[in-house]
Recover the amino acids of this structure.
């Protein structure tokens, strides 16, 4: 049986340098922190989409129209991008 730790280590072996692994981990930590700060409706919608739910499924789950779901996903992505850019400056 393979543990999660060895599975993670195997995935990290794909990187050429330890610095790349550290940078990837920092970016992931930033993304998670930014998601936590995002308003719930945007965070929920984006997380569902990333998990593979269709626009239609998300609309049913959130009791929204498909158009609203698309708008929320677009806005959530824009919020993340803006936050990443602002933190990089």
């Amino acid at each position: 049986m393979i543990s999660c730790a060895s599975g993670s280590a195997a995935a990290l072996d794909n990187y050429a340098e330890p610095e790349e692994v550290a940078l990837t981990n920092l970016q992931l930590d930033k993304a998670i922190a930014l998601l936590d700060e995002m308003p719930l409706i945007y965070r929920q919608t984006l997380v569902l989409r990333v998990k593979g739910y269709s626009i239609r499924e998300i609309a049913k789950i959130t009791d929204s129209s498909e158009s609203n779901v698309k708008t929320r996903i677009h806005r959530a992505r824009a919020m993340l991008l803006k936050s990443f850019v602002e933190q990089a400056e």
